[in-house]
Amino acid sequence: MYLTTLKFHRALEWFKQSSYDYMLLYASGSSKIDYDMVGDFLRYKDLIDRQTGKLVCFLHFIERIESNDSTQGTILQAEHKDSVESFMLYHIMTEEAKQITRRELYNGVGLEATYQTTDEICDFFGIARYKLPAFILIHKLSPNDSILSFKKQYSIISIKEKKDFESLLNPIKIANDCINDLDLINKELSSVESEPTYNAVLKDIEAIKRGIENLKSEKKTDLIEKLNGILSEINSLLCDYHINNYAFVMVRPYIIKKYLTHTGVIKEFMRDHNDLYYRYKSLFYKIEKWDHREMNFIKIMQSDLINKEKILVRSQTRESRIKTLIDESRYVKELYKKSFEEKLMMEDASPLITAIISRSSTLPMIFESAIKTYLCKDILVRSIINDVREKVNKMQFNVFISCKSEDYENGEELYAFLKSKGYMPFIASKSLREIGGDKYSSVISDVIDICSHMIVYATNILYVETPYVKSEWDMFCNEIKAGRKKGKLLTILRDPKQGVNLPIDLRSREVLSIDSYKNSICNYLY
After folding, report:
1. Range name among 111-115, 257-261, 295-299 with the lowest pLDDT average
2. Between 118 and which of 27, 134, 418, 426 could a Cys-Cys bridge form, CB atoms 3.0 to 4.6 Å apart?
3. 241 with 265: CB under 8 angstroms?
4. CATH architecture of 396-524
């Protein structure tokens, strides 16, 4: 992350030679909103870096404020508790940036330079001045390409207020959550896959059991018999060295060596029978420490056996755990694919999910496209919402028709009937419903707020408790309970007798029939 103030053309030249893959530019003045937006960018810089490129270069063009008694200057100086110079230097985030001289740093500072640099960006990219402040995401080109080549490789993401920045962060946060969730699953999957298989653990257990049996079956008396056999062989060899008046019994090995040294035949004997002597020595000490060693060896092997048996129990579920984690990974991918498609309003998020999972080099470009599409649609949605809100205030709706999208056709008959009777009914269109989520509810709540009455229309009683419908009549019901509304809350069903199965807030009120509501509904709406 790199944040400083520089002349635009100089910044492009520097960017061409740098190690960065993308550059985000933010051109602005020095209002508190601008400072806050830069602060937001810095808080989320790791998320943005992670999805838009290896590293991001971020240039902030800001006007210089001299120390004076003006209100604006005093406020800004107080906010940053230091000189503007220190504030600028604070935002130098990389070693490359630290190498820039102070003179170079101030090439872009000052009120006149700020507007000059902003105009320079607008002229270079052919951007209308009113579109800034903005983030401009620039693709990295070859150092051999001219600066003018950048004109063909840029995209503008308009950031003029907090909501715009939140819109930019929305897809970035989803992508990071996706990566984090999949990384956790893959880490656990890797751990499970590294565990020994059931058959491998079973073989280890069988080997340990054989080792314990061998230790238990080997008797100390058998070892003594073997030792005496070696002693007999050594004694018979002494005759070859003309030592006939001495025969070894079970003695410590060094006694044999000491006697052979005393008789002067140690060199010849060890040269010819070194192996025999060391067999005797090894067996002697094995017998001497037999009881202690046997007990320790068996204890160690039995402890190892217990551990292996625990692992064996766990290894029985190894394959099923691997399958579960693979299924979980598949589910998470599908979940985030749907999340991208719904929240980013994408037709198919498969390429984006694939790029995220594989850490593909195409990810920044795919992600950039997704962000641009989302922001464009988000701006359109906001425009629609604002337009609807204006109409809501002008239309003075007084009857809200709440129904599931499957009932819109039938609900529109009720809408037409009420309108013919002089009411101003409201029924949400499908296009408004498709805005979705919090955007939809923010408009609907405005409409519900000004309506005196609500009619819940359902050809199927189950529709009454679907999320959108329930949230609408629940909101209206709460207003009645709080005494803020005096109107009627009615329900229209295919069979009014099913009213006993409605939630208590609805069944305690009037329930009319779809076939006959026209005969009596106006009697309730007064």
Report:
1. 111-115
2. 27
3. yes
4. 3-Layer(aba) Sandwich (3.40)
Q: How confident is the model at residue 1 (pLDDT cuts 50, 70, 90)?
A: very low
- Structure-token pair, residue 3: 């944040």
Phi-psi label, residue 66: left if phi above 0, alpha if psi -120 to 50, beta otherwise: beta
CATH of domain 2-160: 3.40.30
Same fold? 2-160, 396-524: no
Spatial CA neighbour of 340 closest among 328, 353, 325, 331: 353
CA dihedral 199, 200, 206, 212 (to 10 degrees): -160
> Who contacts 229 (Cβ-Cβ below 8 Å, separation ≥6)?
none
Distance CA 140, CA 368 (A): 13
pLDDT, greater one: 1 or 521: 521
Q: Which conformational region is residue 49 in: left (phi greater than 0), alpha (psi within -120 to 50 degrees), or beta? A: alpha
* Local structure of residue 451 (DSSP, 8 states): -
Nearest of 171, 172, 134, 140 to residue 156 by alpha carbon: 134
User: Using 50, 70 and 90 to split pLDDT, how confident is the model at 63?
Assistant: very low
Supply angle C-alpha 32, 37, 42, rounded to 5.
125
Among 52-66, 123-137, 148-162, 402-416, top mean pLDDT goes to 402-416
Cα gap 428→454, rounded to integer Å: 13
What span, in angstroms and rounded, lies between the C-alpha atoms of 466 and 27?
46
Reported pTM: 0.50
Q: Which helix (DSSP H) or strand (DSSP E) does residue 426 occupy?
A: strand 425-427
Which two tokens mark 202? 């079973």
Cα(323)–Cα(241) distance, rounded to whole angstroms? 75
User: Two tokens at 434?
Assistant: 């498709």
62-76, 137-151, 214-228, 439-453, range with the lowest pLDDT: 62-76
